[in-house]
Amino acid sequence: MKTKFFTGKGDQGESQIGEKKFSKTDPAMAILGTLDELNSWLGLCRAKINKEKNFSFEKGDPLNLENVIKEIQQLLFIAQAEVAAIAFAYPKSPKITSATTEKIEGKISLIDQQVSELKHFIIPGGSEISAMFDFGRTIIRRAEREAVGYNSEIKRLTPELLQFFNRLSSFLFALARYANFQLKIEEDRPNYQ
Questions:
Q1: Most buried one in 16, 30, 163, 174, CB count within 10 A?
Q2: Could you please report the per-residue DSSP string of the chain?
């Protein structure tokens, strides 16, 4: 067998990281798992957009949804590497920087210039891809909560990483709105009745 997908012994609730074993209940494992969940979910979003015939973007369009999602997925790998390096004492790791977050903020600004002004809460949905982006937003919010809780104990996650998690949720919300805008689907608002 070329790739060993399993040992056949079970793992007794632990994961091997380098030479050490860590409990799967370790808070860092929760953050890493949630980031992995989001990355997989975004892969599904990208596959959905790839099949969607109603999206068309010019080459080089900074808001080409398929490309934007792939960029986010790449950043999630960097965020995971950074969390793992801190949690498991790796000497080096790529890092999320303030410039990373500024690029996301720039794309949010581009979306804001196109969608209508937000004056009320929006019910997630409209189009399937918009609902999928909103679901992704809830996943990164969970990762952010886990990271803040973890950081309150260890105080080693960088402010840039925590800001990235926060801004990524805003970006996914903006992408949800942008998807409906692209598909000319009106947003619904709650009526509280």
A1: 174
A2: --S----SS--TTEEEETTEEEETTSHHHHHHHHHHHHHHHHHHHHHHHHH-TT----TT-TT-HHHHHHHHHHHHHHHHHHHHHHHTT-S------HHHHHHHHHHHHHHHTTSPPP-S--BS-SSHHHHHHHHHHHHHHHHHHHHHHHHHHH--S-HHHHHHHHHHHHHHHHHHHHHHHHTT-PPB-----
Evaluate whether 168 touches 140 at the Cβ level (below 8 Å). yes
Question: Comparing C-alpha atoms, which of 41, 53, 51 is closest to residue 131?
Answer: 41
**The tokens 């969608």 sit on which residue?**
115
Low-confidence ranges of the chain (pLDDT < 50): none
Q: Which tokens hold the place of 24? A: 């799967």
Q: Name 181's Cβ contacts closer than 8 Å, sequence gap at least 6.
A: 114, 115, 116
Predicted confidence (pLDDT) per residue in 144-160, tens digit = 999 999 998 877 899 99
Annotate 97-125 with b (16+ C-beta within 10 A) or e (fewer): eeebbeebeebbeebeeeeeeeeeebebe
Token reading at 172: 């996914």
Q: Which amino acid is at 183?
A: L
